[in-house]
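Changelog note: in this version the structure field was regenerated for every chain. One regenerated record is shown below for reference.
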Amino acid sequence: MSSKRPQLRRCGLCHNTGHNKATCPEGKVLSAKPMPAAPLKFFVHHVNTPPPTSAHVVNLKSEKSEVWKTVDTSAPDISAPSLFQTYHNIKNSDETEPPINSKLFSDLHGAKKSIDPIVPKLNLKPIQEKKVKLKKPSRENFKFVTAKLVPSRLAMATVLIFTLALVIPGPLQGYFESLAQTKDTITENSTAGFMALQESATALKSANLTSAELATTAALSKFNNALETLTTKHTVLQSVVKVVPFLGGQIIGRERILLAGEQIALGNSYLLSGLKAIENNSGQPVTDKLNTLVEALRLANPNYKQAAENLSAVDENILPFEYRQQFVDFRKLFVGLVPDFERITGLNDTLQEIFGGKGLRRYILVFQNPAELRPTGGFMGSFAVLDIKDGKIINLDVPAGGTYDLQGQLSEYIIPPLPLTINNKRWEFQDANWFPDFPASAKKILWFYNHSRNVTADGVITINATVLEKILSIIGPVTDSSRNLTLTSSTALTAIQTVVETGSEKQINKPKQILADLAPQIISLIQNSTGKNLLPLLGSLEEALEEKEIQAYFTDTAVQKQILTSGWAGAIIDSGKNTDYLLVVNTNLQGQKSDARIKQTISHQAVVDDEGNVIDTVSISREHIGEPTEQFYGSVNVDFMRIYVPEGSTLISANGFSWPDEKNFRAPENWYKVDSNLSQIEQEVGIEQNSGTRITNEFGKTAFGNWVVTEPGKISRIDISYRLPFKVSPNSSTSDTVWKKIMSSFDEQTVHYQLVVQKQSGITSNFESQIIFPASWQPDWVSGDNVSLARNGLNIISSPLLRDSVWGILMKKPNQ
């Protein structure tokens, strides 16, 4: 006989069996007594310290109703256990940075100290604009790692999915199977589309228009198939899935990638049509070819712009891991190209003016040799006078004696800038490019030309010798039959240099005869470029202008304004008040072609104290890697260096300078005239007694000038320290409207620091910097390329300085 199972449930009040709380005989008595609190049960997640008290916890019973107005947001203590930092880490951070060491170098020749990681890096975005402006700060850089799901949206999606599962459980399974097949179809078509798009880009780069057209057509077809499949099948389920936050992002992101692919292919088709039209009318003037190309770009640009917007909106994490970096690299490249295409479109009127589309124009073309550095890029060894009308060259005159041909024709006797007296006691045409501000040097070139030949010109275009390498890589080799020479992109500079320095023409004072012979041939090849070469040539032209290998000045004010706006004028930037600035200018005087063997590194540091005062230190290393016996390049490098900083900066110290022998300098005659233009530009401030450094104010900047002599196999190192003329503080004003707009969206205690660094034409230096604030100040926002954020400032990683660059950081000063 089985026994009855005993009653295990107990009363919640008296804890006896056989009844519950409702029928408990002692219920009335026990309910009147306070019950002891049950022990709190919780799980310990490997945490050995209590969490910090939140700044948001307030006593609502004792505080006033406006208590929330006094609550400040707070960041986690960086020293707290990692568990409590999980939800406060900056998006995509996997590395950390320490506070920056305020000591830039351990000793004069010691290695720089490395920075060990400690705090999270920011997800930095490079500046897209070419002008010296910062983009508006984006709080996207400060997102938490965790996504915040909207409860109502998630609930609605869940209800819809379960409703479908309950109403049509059988068909739904087949629906998902069909969706999987659709996914395979879309993947196949999109992959083929992007492969065809890549083939199209490769064909365009190699100027194979037929292959590019076939590949573009194939890409359009594949993308169209993929989009049609995506948008016409399973629309109900896709609409539901898009509502789910963790699924919708993937669906929308992949759709945007497909749209971007189709838009790029469509833009390429417009561009191809224009290039083919140019190909079929190769006899057209350059001006007509430019019109055709610009019209094609005008039609293509809206598609490129939409594609860039779609690509920028895609989270790369939706892609398989093996494709993410490839996608990120492609997006960065393409998004950077779109503004360039738009700029070329907007420059058509300017290009028409330059190429004589509005009448006869005369330009002085100056060929500069960066192996012998001068302020605007190199020594002016050769020049040409070009007359052009309607895109056709009317006349091209290349003096066989180079710039020295004007020596006997110059009517004025002018005292040169003091450092130039090591070359000549008289200022002449070949040394006219003394000013690092190209418009100022161009005006001086025009002045010397006018006072030598009594002829005016409409502009000056300087072209560095390195541009010839880029041109020959596109148009192919050029043959000099009279000298039995074939010039390729890799041999041209050395071959020309050898002929100029050792050729037979030098004995009859015509060392540049080879340039006079080759220039018409090269210009003719450029002028008669077919469609397949025109776009690569324009691309190389834009790159050369961007990197100051080509600089231009025009007397037409409208054209010059456009050149200045595009950043192609080689002008010293007006960086405004309260902005740090740096430009290092090298001038080779009696150093032969030794700059071809000089490696230069510029290390900058700005230290801000608690009061907002800023001390800058700049260290410049110049290493001569040439051999003393090396022809052309093995000479001692003699450099007059000028360091341009914010106007009003006070020099604290200067070390490492060295001077050439004083007997090499030549005194001008007493009756030579003082150049009024030079006196207006170079305003003497004084001489620093310990180092002999000359201090001047020029172009709205203060310049520190002195000599640096570097022997082959040796390294010269210059260290200067100076105090900036402004303070970095919350109350500091700025004339930069962009910064005013940025600052308006941040806390009153937030201060800004901005650094503008300009590149000298003809040299690519490595640049690095550290911006150091007091330890109690916190970073709020940063902008610029190649940066890592530290707890107390910004580290600009060493990289080649290819173009003018700008960096900015916002720091929050603690309340006093």
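Spot check on this record: The mean pLDDT is 74. The domain at 582-662+687-733+763-812 is CATH 2.60.40 (Immunoglobulin-like).
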